[in-house]
From TrEMBL:
PANTHER family from the UniProt entry: CHROMATE REDUCTASE, NAD(P)H-DEPENDENT FMN REDUCTASE LOT6
Bilayer-spanning residue ranges: none
Protein's recorded name: NAD(P)H-dependent oxidoreductase
Keywords assigned: Flavoprotein, FMN
NADPH-dependent FMN reductase-like domain mapped to chain residues: 22-158
Cofactor(s) annotated in UniProt: FMN
Domain of life the protein comes from: Bacteria
């Protein structure tokens, strides 16, 4: 698994250039968030059950000020170096997976902002949505799916919904994704398998 903006060190990471890369885009930037642990757990499953490379993308490492581009994103003529870099990052990926908490029945604002900075880069991009929350984050998934449809992303059918326990949400208990989400591991594997198929359908024979 690879972390954004860090040099590859692990043997898996060093072979990442030869494998299609799936970006796991984290929806949460909150301090004290559980998102990185969840994204890493998903990356481990993905590495184990596919030949894809997985890179966790922390939007905190991608400062994209709100509405700072003078042109509409669909033109693709970005003036800001950070938007150009974000565009290249998404364009170079074989697929993306949004790993997002549900916030007040929706998804976090920084994720919408990161999506809205681009337009054509998302079109046809194989993509999965993995949400979490007290009830799995289904409302968040619904909203993300609607946005992804508007952008004509190549969404996979399976949307794993990971249920956080009361202890984690209310009492800040340590999260062990392997135990907490044991019953959802198959659904994550299924989403990854669908991503492989989606990527293959776009690759030249
Ligand atoms: C602003 C905010 C809104 C939330 N709204 C919901 C919600 O609608 N449904 C839910 O199940 N949990 C909700 N939660 C609880 C989150 O599921 C829980 O805090 C989770 O750990 C958030 O992910 P993060 O720690 O990676 O940021 C909310 C948390 C925050 C911070």
């Amino acid at each position: 698994m690879i972390h954004a903006n860090t040099p590859a060190k692990h043997p898996i990471e060093s072979s990442h250039r030869t494998r299609p890369v799936v970006l796991l885009i984290m929806g949460s930037q909150r301090s004290g968030r559980v998102c990185p642990q969840i994204a890493q757990w998903i990356a481990q499953i993905g590495e184990a059950c596919t030949d894809l490379a997985f890179e966790v993308v922390d939007l905190a490492d991608w400062p994209l000020p709100v509405d700072d581009e003078p042109e509409l994103p669909h033109r693709g003529s970005y003036r800001q170096p950070h938007t150009q870099a974000w565009s290249e990052k998404i364009s170079a990926a074989a697929a993306v997976a949004f790993v997002s908490p549900q916030y007040n029945w929706g998804y976090p604002a920084p994720l919408k902002n990161a999506i809205d900075h681009l337009y054509g880069e998302w079109r046809g991009k194989p993509a999965a949505i993995i949400t979490y929350g007290g009830h799995g984050g289904g409302k968040c998934a619904e909203q993300l799916r609607q946005v992804a449809a508007g952008l004509k992303m190549g969404m996979v059918a399976t949307s794993p919904a990971l249920t956080l326990s009361e202890d984690v949400i209310r009492h800040g208990a340590a999260l062990d994704p392997e135990t907490e989400f044991a019953s959802s591991a198959d659904s994550v594997k299924q989403a990854m398998a669908e991503l492989v198929t989606q990527i293959a359908s776009l690759s030249p024979a």
